[in-house]
Predict the structure of DNA-binding response regulator.
Amino acid sequence: MPYRLIIADDHQLLIDGLSAVLNTNTEWELLPAVNNGRELLYVLEREQVDLVLLDLNMPQLDGVKALSIIKRNYPKIKVLVLTNYGQPQLQAEIRKAGAEGYLLKNSPAALLREVIQLILEGGMHYSEAEETPAEENTWFLDDFMKRYQLTRREVEIIKMIGQELTSKEISDRLYISEFTVSTHRKNILRKLNLKNTAGVVNFARENSLI
Amino acid sequence: MPYRLIIADDHQLLIDGLSAVLNTNTEWELLPAVNNGRELLYVLEREQVDLVLLDLNMPQLDGVKALSIIKRNYPKIKVLVLTNYGQPQLQAEIRKAGAEGYLLKNSPAALLREVIQLILEGGMHYSEAEETPAEENTWFLDDFMKRYQLTRREVEIIKMIGQELTSKEISDRLYISEFTVSTHRKNILRKLNLKNTAGVVNFARENSLI
DNA sequence: CCAAAAATACTCATAATTAGGTATTGGCAA
DNA sequence: TTGCCAATACCTAATTATGAGTATTTTTGG
């Protein structure tokens, strides 16, 4: 009996693509895809599923939350998280929530298939990226940091503020004190000559940090 | 001789997917995909290309800028823009920049194929505006407000939050009480399902309110 | 290795935002 | 004209962010 897979992603084109890529194999069977977390939970209640390919950036019920619920209610179902950015702190969260794997969306199809096979056989896989976000990007980031006299940590926190996290949430993800986040925020506002959170978000977007 | 297509998108999985979906047809040929605007321009200089499938949200050189450059330097190359959100004002920009088509990423594969065929034969296709009758609302803001159930005042305040004003400053400018601004902010967060100021700023920018 | 920079953590104080309410007014449409 | 909605205003309470400091540890570069 083939393994039963389901894709949860809000981009239909990605779904069609994944389906095409994954249908080359007879060892697994694809259930009709769902477009958000709610739909996914609805299907999981009614169907027997072995592996969920889970997009993190979904409407309705976001990926991390959906993941926690799945792992709590259906511990046997394996989950492979697909995401856009390599966010190490998010990765820690995903790991903690119990996903069997984590893969960036900009991975080749062959790797995806390998990882799925690995997970179905009981393995785990966490994409190691992020350390090296491509040379050009590193260069860009260095230049950018120099221009604004920002440190790596500060840039990281600017991104997280832009992603609507509170200081508490940031401190939890980075495993540092809320006081420390507060210090970083102060330094960010001073260095960039901004006066509040809205300014930081605008800065983050204007500089393509999010 | 088949038409020559190229995909420009930073998500490898989407590329693999699109490739699989598009390879069902012999009337066109897919060039190796590129992951950002720079790479795309590099390829266009060296290869003969008929149609570009262009993602709007790319690193390095964003979609709209890449589009302008393509249309200026290679007016014969047709461009179909693929994007995440239906942003009517962005659509106007894309149209102005000369793209032959505009399609949301959450479109079925069949539609994508039809649209590509149409464009290659000299047609145009814009995802949303074409379908909505002109009598409805030519005023963007009305449509926008209806979509999110926002009032005029709320939109006004969203803009001001995006412009980094505090509630106090907003109340001063609008000659209303700070309490009133606070009420509006509450309603905004509730209606848009956001949790803080950063979310409002992101919303404002994603919807080109600032 | 050593100095500088970065990251960490804390106190005290104030400002701003968020989360629950409730309530009144004016305008517009059925 | 009557009922709904938008806009206004207020209250209490909790949470989050900002401002101005100080200080220690860790990391990094020369």
